[in-house]
Input
Amino acid sequence: MTISNGNPAMARTVHLVVAGDHPSPELLVGWERLGVRPLEVAAPEPGTSAPCLLLAPALRGFVRAGLTQPFHGFVEQGRGSETLSTNSVSTILKGGLALSLTTSAAYSLDAARLTAAAIGERFGVASHLQGRLELVLAEAAANAVIHGNLGLSSEDRGSVDGVAAFQSAINERLADPNLATRRIEIAVLRQGTTLTLGVTDHGQGYDLSRELSRPTARTDTFGRGLALIRWLSKSVTAADGGRTLLVAFDLG
Amino acid sequence: MDLNLPENSADPVFRLGGTLTYRDNTEFNRLVTRLGNGTGTVTLDLAALEYMDSFGVGLMMLVRDEARKHGRRLRIVNLQKPIRELFERLDLMAELPIDQGTESPAAPTIRQEGGRLMVSDVTETGTDARVRLSGRFVVADQQQFLPVIAAIGRRRSGSLVIDLEALTFMDSAGLSMIMLANDEARRGGTAIAIAKPRGAVKDLLKLAAIDLVIPVHDDL
Output
């Protein structure tokens, strides 16, 4: 299957390699709208110059494979919307990397760790920056899962009972198929010494400026996630009504 | 593969020898099906296992998942060098419940494995106590730390050292749980200290200036 970004002026296309069940005709139509063409082979065609995406069940080995050369991304197959945003397709066409997982897979597979390792390998992140990159991704992905797709606030976590209740709420919402199959997308592009990370959820969105303006005291028990991202990155902005967090990370 | 299946035991020890490869699926499944019988700790002793292929690694992951499904604690012990190197290359040392085998007999035992975070029992020496964390501490693991906070809540004096030497990664959710432990300790009159943070964990503690709230020691 070949995917394009829907822009007729964009000559290049993306190939979609299907490792699991054959996609439904409806899904294929959706991919075609994105300009993606299915290859229907189990591996990238030898010599193909187009970037390849892997569509497969969310097993750790498949995700790792999809994020590693010769692939440029992974889309979880089998549950929820098995597709990518046009932004992610564009990112791939520019030489970047994209990942689309359901909320439950992103939570259980530790998507940030897999993605950070793949970024380090693909884009040559210096070893002293790798931990910081992983922390930025972990915070952004956790926000997208917990506060975005699962719609949970962390305000009541400041006690042992609060944490236990918070965990119960996570488990309850992950058991709700409508919430568990919402997608998390991570798109990564290196331009010069800047790595741009886009983490998108399908929650209600939030006011980033308001969240960033909240002071973080050293003695606070919870609520450091966004502050850490801000401290570790060149810039943090929001798009799509606060559903996409865009982080510029300096590799220099 | 040579597989020694013990008679029914509350805490069975399965001894594997020879090589574990794709040819051993059927034999290995005999072990996996035994996980549904009982509730005690299951130990996989790999002392005599010389080689494992990627399929064997998959079988290890399978036994981990099955143990978790049946609510059983799993320990993998006595890794020989080639197996250890394979697990290290595949970044599985924190994924699998591997007993590192470097502790003294009195060292804390690992309570929760299979997930990313491993939390030792809280060991007491007089009025002082110590708990060791290893693996990764992220939002999905916070519930595993609650027993430590509960143990802190039962103390009324002395000190507790949280040893992070073997913790490879922590995010703000993990940090928050340590701050919560500190809140609980202060209420009960216990002094908390953090010992031996390394790498990315040490960076995080510095970045969040945790040493202004909790003493952090490179060696303690």
Notes: Residues 4-11 of chain A have pLDDT under 50 and may be disordered. Chain A has ten helices and ten strands. The interface with chain B takes residues 107-108, 110, 112-113, 117, 130-132, 134-135, 138-139, 142, 145-146, 157-160, 163-164, 166-167, 218-225, 228, 231-232 of chain A (CB under 8 Å).
